[in-house]
Amino acid sequence: MDREAFQERFGLIGESAALKQVIDKVVQVADTDITVLLQGESGVGKDVTAKAIHEISNRKHNDLVIVNCGAIPEGIIESELFGHEKGSFTGAHEAREGYFEKANGGTIFLDEIGDTPANVQVKLLRVLESGEYFRVGSSKLRTTDVRVIAATNKDLWQLVQEESFREDLFYRLDTVKVKLPPLRDRPDDVIPIFRKFVTEFSAKYDSVFKGFSDEAKELLVSYRWPGNVRELRNVAEQLVVLEKSQFIDTDKLQKYLKGRQHSGATDNLPVLADQNERNKNGAFGNDDQKLIYRALVELQSDIGDLKKMLANFLYSTFSQKNIKALPQNIQDEVNKPENSGMDIDIGNAAEEDIGVESYAEADISEEETEDDAFSEFFTSDDIPSIEKTEQFLIEQALRKYEGNRRKASEALGISERTLYRKLDQYGLQ
Q1: Tens digits of per-residue pLDDT, 133-148?
Q2: pTM, whole model, 2 decimals?
Q3: Do 278 and 148 have their domain in common?
Q4: Among the listed ranges 90-99, 232-241, 410-419, which one has the minimum average pLDDT value?
């Protein structure tokens, strides 16, 4: 099957080079039994790609079994995958076949494979290599003949480095890797995909979509689409239903864009209108003012995130070192009912003197102290910028946990994905 026929059959819209490379690779491996690993952000269409691979494979007449590994509780995932015998655990009132048994002769799609518990990874490796497995509570060896497609929005190799994912399983899954590009890397495909969704929803809801302005088109293309195609589809549906028979301009469109506009900058802040688009006397127009206001709002959000990051890291550090007294302004925040546990906001603490005076009340040996770095950084005559403060906290967290990014992200109160993005932004290893 050629690329054009593939796109038409599965409704894949776009002419970008990135999309063409993906389709060519998928078509090339589809009619084999080789294991495929789909890698990409949430919403890029990993499930659609997996279904397409199955539909043009030699196993298309048998079942495609879809398993979301991240949605199954750790205590029952082994039973869900491999089945169990009657009486093998409390509540097992009858024998039950697992997903690998149901998929025999067909394809099994293991979505969010990076969230699989360690004890199940061993058994996954065995069934991938030999097709052999045991039901929970059974000593009878069973076999299955399945084609495996796995997907993840995580960096599996990074998980291997952090010892949360087996290296041998990684190599077994990484036979053929297909990286699905995010929508922001396919700007030329945004409008065609949007039109496709609008056409579908207009027919579904018996609605009329009267189009949108050139400025709205530019906003659609420049928007980052953090939710990728899934978010684009959601926006199209909302516009068709809620803005029925309305001509869409930027004001109407902006109400449905939850993320940020972009122009390639690492901070993702919106870009002001071009100089020649300003009015003749050099003053900012209404559009410029709106962009500036949105930038300030986002900057305020970033400051709030930074405060929380600082609070989480200091709180984690103090707790582990059994410091007897927190700085008073942090202690006041911790004692607030709404700030229970580590999820605290230290208010203006980052702007105050968190340094030698704060540690003076603590009983810490010289071998344990990390406050020299904090003292030098926070008691300097020059107030550090938000970016420098954020970079400093990330460096301290990574140093404290010897490069373990999972523990560092937990101490900072941010997700691992956010930490990876920050490391790339600041050029940190």
Answers
A1: 999 999 999 999 999 9
A2: 0.60
A3: no
A4: 410-419
- Same domain? 173 vs 191: no
Task: Give per-residue pLDDT as tens, 194-216.
Answer: 999 999 999 999 888 888 899 99
The values of phi and psi at residue 223, to 5°, are -65, 145
CA separation for the pair 399, 424 (Å, rounded): 17
- 238 and 367 together in one domain: no
Domain boundary among 291, 325, 356: 291
| Residues 23 and 58 occupy one common structural domain | yes
Calpha distance 347→171 (Å, rounded): 46
- Which bin fits 131, alpha (ψ -120 to 50), beta or left (φ > 0)? left
Per the structure, the complete domain to which residue 133 belongs is given by: 3-181
In this structure, the chain runs to a length of 429
Cβ neighbours for 59, distance < 8 A, ≥ 6 positions apart: 33, 105, 106, 107, 147
Same domain, 34 and 49: yes
Per-residue confidence (pLDDT) for residue 278, from 0 to 100: 45
- Fill in the DSSP letter of residue 269: P
Distance between CA atoms of residues 28 and 53, nearest Å: 10
CA gap 200, 359 in Å, rounded:
62
- Two tokens at 61? 């007449």
